[in-house]
Design brief:
It is built from four helices and three strands; from the N terminus they run H-E-H-H-E-E-H. By secondary structure, the chain is α+β, with helices and mostly antiparallel strands. The chain has one domain: Arc Repressor Mutant, subunit A, CATH 1.10.10. A three-stranded antiparallel β-sheet has the order 1-3-2. Strand 2 and strand 3 form a beta hairpin.
Length: about 80
């Protein structure tokens, strides 16, 4: 029997454009409170009534600012 777990890169093409904080925390692997802080910094939060939605496109563009270049370690391993 196979497993149904999919990698983020496998599902990215049909991912939702807007997610709530709980869904975002699962997708990006960070806590709910941290994703709200970062999404606000990115300007990716949309208030709809009592709910807050995060625009994943804006959020990911903001995250790219913090990307670190790959570094070569001993024995030619790149991280």
């Amino acid at each position: 029997m196979g497993y149904s777990y999919k990698c983020y890169s496998d599902t990215r093409d049909f991912m939702k454009k807007y997610v709530n904080a709980e869904e975002g925390a699962i997708i990006y692997g960070i806590s709910k409170s941290r994703i709200i802080v970062v999404a606000r910094e990115a300007g990716a939060v949309y208030k709809v009534g009592n709910s807050a939605l995060i625009n994943t496109q804006l959020f990911e563009e903001y995250l790219e600012q913090f990307r670190e270049p790959a570094r070569e370690l001993l024995n030619g391993i790149v991280i």
